[in-house]
Design goal:
With 430 residues, the protein is of the alpha+beta class. The protein contains nine helices and 14 strands. The chain has a four-stranded mixed β-sheet. It has a three-stranded antiparallel β-sheet with strand order 1-4-14, with helices on one face. The chain has a three-stranded antiparallel β-sheet with strand order 5-6-7, with no helix packed on it. A hairpin with a 2-residue loop joins strand 6 (255-260) and strand 7. Helix 3 (41-60) runs parallel beside helix 4 and helix 7 packs across helix 8. The structure holds fe (ii) ion. Catalyzes the oxidative sulfurization of hercynine (N-alpha,N-alpha,N-alpha-trimethyl-L-histidine) into hercynyl-gamma-L-glutamyl-L-cysteine sulfoxide, a step in the biosynthesis pathway of ergothioneine. InterPro entries: CTDL_fold, DinB-like, DinB/YfiT-like, EgtB, EgtB_Actinobacteria, Sulfatase_Mod_Factor_Kinase, SUMF_dom, SUMF_sf.
């Protein structure tokens, strides 16, 4: 294998190690559904193998199906999450055997294919990038399931850099056009393409994500009880759900605690807030006299280099993330303190845009002008419209392989189990 193929093989091994680590548990924990929002963990495990079989073995490798009879069980479209516990899915031991069998053949296909050839699935290893990112995304989902389950054992206490208090609250992004999306990053998804010019008026965006201390002030000042701060839909959701704080927060006298992978601990004042819905983020922003950034504002503040007139792959430049630049890859099981990554700042001075928490934007998930679905419509196209809000940046649980300034995530505005926070923006005074 050449160097590039070796790197792909290493990524495949790394992501599988991660999936196996999250499913090293008693069978009962793996087959149970911990929330109607989530799949049983063992479903996720075999699903990533089935996806790999479908795309690498059958589509890219032309190999006869190994287990065609299980395809329907693992087709995310045919089986809504709430119905998954009643499916005849593979048990833990069989699921592990199945994905291992698929993986062995995947490495054979990798060895044999021409990554410089004209086939779009093969070119630059796209199909391998597809399954590696897909598995990392499921791993993050599995972490959310484990957090919901209240199971202890997954609290990784890796060392994160200290926060720093000093610095401006907002950074300024002058009016002008920038290049949004990408036409060049080989593993970018269809929804990130094509690159296109977007002209924006000037605006201010928070230098850092909104922190727990600031969010506590919103709660203390009655933010959850004042319909002025909420959209009509948001207020309806607020009343119906009875929500009065981020998910996993519990009141402890005058203070707030949170549960995190089965432990209860004080909410750290200096971490970005997480586990808030889009409605909560939107209401907070209005209370603060601001608004959520649009997706374009978020991407320009994160990735555009105005001096070089080009988009960066990461806020700080082209080199991959390191522990000094961003909190990614489940190093610890929580966001880093605010201000922990000055070296990871974007050209405009915004910090912690990649890693720590996904960030809600005000935008619906729409296609870019000139969008073409690839390699299949169910990846992005069927989700376009005014049902899902766009999230950007990637959380502490996202892997560097599935993070870049152009990456788009999307979810329902009511979702809170994901590792999500936000930052605010405001238009330039005119
Ligand atoms: Fe999937």
């Amino acid at each position: 294998m050449n160097d590039f193929k070796e790197r792909i093989a290493a990524e495949l091994i790394a992501v599988r190690d991660r999936s196996l680590a999250y499913t090293e548990a008693e069978d009962d924990l793996l087959v149970r559904q911990h929330s109607p929002l989530m799949s049983p963990l063992v479903w996720d495990l075999a699903h990533v193998g089935n996806y790999e079989e479908l795309w690498v073995l059958r589509e890219a490798g032309g190999i006869t199906p190994l287990r065609p009879e299980i395809d329907d069980i693992y087709d995310a479209f045919k089986t809504p999450r709430k119905d998954r516990p009643s499916l005849p899915f593979l048990g833990p031991a069989e699921a592990r055997r199945y994905i291992e069998g698929v993986r062995g053949r995947v490495l054979d296909v990798l060895d044999a294919v021409d990554l410089d050839g004209p086939a779009p699935l093969h070119r630059d290893g796209f199909v391998f990038g597809l399954v590696i990112q897909h598995e990392h995304q499921h791993d993050e989902t599995m972490l959310a399931t484990l957090q919901l389950s209240g199971q202890p054992g997954l609290v990784r206490e890796g060392e994160l850099p200290k926060g720093r208090g000093a610095g401006p609250g907002e950074v300024h992004v002058p009016a002008g056009s920038f290049l949004m999306g990408t036409g060049t990053l080989p593993w970018a998804y269809d929804n990130e393409r094509p690159a296109h010019r977007v002209d924006l008026p000037g605006y201010w965006i928070d230098r850092l994500p909104v922190g727990n201390e600031a969010y506590m002030a919103f709660i203390a000042e009655g933010g959850y009880d004042d319909p002025r701060w909420w959209t009509a839909e948001g207020w309806q959701w607020r009343q119906r759900s009875g929500v009065t704080a981020p998910l996993f927060w519990v009141r402890d006298g005058d203070a707030w605690c949170r549960t995190r992978f089965g432990r209860t601990e004080p909410v750290p004042l200096d971490e970005p807030v997480q586990h808030v819905s889009w409605y909560e983020a939107d209401a907070y922003a209005r209370w603060a006299g601001k608004r959520l950034p649009t997706e374009a504002e978020w991407e320009k503040a994160c990735g555009w280099d105005p001096a070089a007139e080009r988009a960066r792959r990461y806020p700080w430049g082209e080199d991959g993330p390191t522990p000094e630049l961003a909190n990614l890859g489940h190093r610890a099981a929580h966001p880093a303190p605010l201000g922990a990554y000055p070296a990871g700042a974007s050209a405009y001075g915004a910090e912690q845009m990649v890693g720590d928490v996904w960030e809600w934007t005000s935008s619906w998930f729409h296609p870019y002008p000139g969008f073409r679905s690839f390699p299949y419509k169910e990846y992005s196209e069927v989700f376009f419209g005014e049902e899902y809000r766009v999230l950007r940046g990637g959380s502490w649980a996202a892997d560097p392989a599935a993070v870049r300034t152009t990456f788009r995530n999307w979810d329902y505005p009511i979702r809170r189990q994901i590792f999500t926070g936000f930052r605010c923006a405001r238009s330039e005074q005119v």
